[in-house]
Amino acid sequence: MTSQAETASGAFPLVSVVTPTRGRADLLISRALRSALAQTLQNIEIIVVIDGPDPVTEAALATVQDSRLRVIALPHLVGGSEARNVGVQAARAQWIALLDDDDEWLPHKLEAQLRLAQTTVQPRPIVACHWIMRTPRGDTPSRRACRTLTSL
Predict the structure, then answer these.
(1) How many CB atoms sit inside 10 A of residue 137's CB?
(2) For 98-115, what is each residue's pLDDT tens digit?
(3) What's the pLDDT score for residue 17?
(4) Are 94 and 14 within 8 A, CB to CB?
(5) Which residues pair with 143 in a beta bridge?
(6) Measuring CA to CA, which residue among 77, 148, 143 is closest to residue 112?
(7) How would residue 50 be classed by pLDDT, with cut points 50, 70 and 90?
(8) Is residue 2 over pLDDT 50?
(9) Do residues 19 and 50 make contact, with C-beta atoms less than 8 angstroms apart?
(10) In angstroms, rounded to a whole number, what is the distance separating the alpha carbons of residues 33 and 69?
């Protein structure tokens, strides 16, 4: 768990959403960020970590007017995994959700996962929900509801 710090509104975020990105501003804004901001659970922070110099992505994120968004622009390439780790280290919430820049969430995802995580007896649960795989041939939904997979 990370230490908690207050958000701009004065409230602690319940969940920190961490999204590493590089060179995919359109996907990031149209999918990942849009779906994170549309969550029914509103008390969140969204940390986008830009992996190395990427002025197009920085400019696109500068147009987003939402106090829940935090942008960390790394001066050098470190790779997606390390960029994600930087975001996790910067997180202020007790719970962390990982979101790739080309993925999108259904509106109740964080609410459902947080409810399950808070009721489990696992000390550090990993929670996963059903998903929809989108391909040019169509959508294929998974058949599993949210569940606790394991504990660290």
Answers:
(1) 7
(2) 999 999 999 999 999 999
(3) 98
(4) yes
(5) none
(6) 148
(7) very high
(8) no
(9) no
(10) 9
